[in-house]
Design brief:
single chain; 365 residues; alpha/beta; D-Maltodextrin-Binding Protein, domain 2; 3-stranded mixed sheet; elongated
Length: 365
């Protein structure tokens, strides 16, 4: 018995010694390299008008700054203003400058023109793919419900040689709060006293007639689905994405003008030197119905909206750097998407505006 106890004691001692010499292997934690930066997301929301360009900017900026993700939701200018007001996004976008009342309520907001575009009056007329000419008063009366047939004498008189059908005009407009609607109704208010007094301008108005579509995409969809329809969309939605016909519009000089990069740039040329500071009110700024023989009359800036005083230093700095890239290198992508690059005078103004962005009083760029 004593011999058996001795053997058991020796075995236990051996096990203990082995455990001390070769302790159990513990799993090791994965250690991330100290220099691997985390991905940072900047969220934006607003106008559908500049969405194709902002989408391109997001993609290209991500290639040179892979740790910065730009997430932009194309929800309409009205929703974009609501979200930047609620501070649920880092930046908003609107085709319309902030109204005086909204500007006063948004303490410390900056308005940054990002690009310039044209709103076209598009149509779906079977057998008539191009060449239709329209004047502002005729467009206004179509949307007021006063002109209801494509072969109305006033339309026919503007288009000698075109045989218009005796078909009802199906009017399409935006159903959501829209900067594109603001630009379009701003133009109609400028050319039609009847429109100005009865409907007026705004991101949302009480449309006298027509079908509503959400976003430029929605209106473009209505036009494609409904023969004999007319509507308004940003140029790229008609020219590139939708392959939809659009009209030549009579400008202030009485010339019928096709919406192009050149004719849109002509509309902004006279305004660039007289714009307000980025932290001031832009509510009176409009470039519709601009003077000049070759100016397209339904042209507009579109704006990015950010707060001057940023509450997060890292995101604020990343946002300021992105905006700086947008107004410089980012402008090289404008023309290919049918937007007009910012004139030098507007770029200089935007530089001053972005330099106002700060965190606790410290400039972010």
């Amino acid at each position: 018995m004593n011999r058996l106890k001795t053997i058991l004691i020796l075995v236990l001692v051996g096990v203990l010694v082995a455990g001390c010499v070769n302790p159990p292997v513990q799993p090791t934690a994965t250690v991330q390299p100290a220099n691997t930066p985390a991905t940072l997301t900047l969220n934006g929301a607003g106008a559908t008008f500049p969405y194709p360009l902002i989408s391109k900017w997001s993609s290209e900026y991500g290639k040179i700054n892979p740790n910065i993700q730009i997430n932009y939701q194309s929800v309409g200018s009205g929703a974009g203003i609501q979200q930047i007001t609620a501070k649920t996004v880092n930046f908003g976008a609107s085709d319309a400058p902030l109204s005086e009342q909204v500007y006063k309520n948004l303490t410390g907001i900056l308005q940054i023109p990002e690009t310039i575009g044209a709103v076209v009056v598009a149509y779906n007329l079977p057998g008539i793919d191009k060449g239709v000419k329209l004047s502002g008063d005729v467009i206004a009366d179509i949307y007021l419900g006063k002109i209801t047939k494509w072969n109305d004498p006033r339309i026919v008189s503007l288009n000698p040689g075109i045989q218009f059908p005796a078909k009802d005009i199906i009017v399409a407009h935006r159903s959501d709060g829209s900067g594109t609607s603001f630009v379009f109704t701003d133009y109609l208010s400028a050319v039609s006293p009847d429109w100005k007094s009865n409907v007026g301008k705004g991101s949302s108005v009480s449309w006298p007639a027509g079908l509503g579509g959400k976003g430029n995409e929605g209106v473009a969809g209505l036009l494609k689905q409904n023969p004999y329809s007319i509507g308004y969309v940003e140029l790229i939605y008609a020219k590139i994405q939708g392959n939809i016909s659009y009209a030549y519009i009579m400008n202030k000089a009485g010339k019928f003008i096709e919406p192009t990069l050149e004719t849109t740039a002509n509309a902004v040329a006279g305004a660039a030197q007289t714009l307000p500071a980025g932290d001031a009110s832009w509510s009176s700024i409009s470039i519709v119905n601009a003077p000049g023989d070759n100016s397209y009359p339904i042209s507009s800036f579109t704006y990015l909206l950010v707060y001057k005083d940023q509450t997060d230093m890292t995101k604020g700095k990343a946002l300021a750097q992105f905006l700086w890239w947008v107004i410089h290198d980012g402008q090289s992508y404008s023309s290919g998407l049918q937007y007009v690059p910012l004139p030098d005078a507007v770029v200089s103004l935007d530089e001053k505006t972005i330099k106002l962005m700060n965190y606790n009083g410290q400039p972010l760029i």
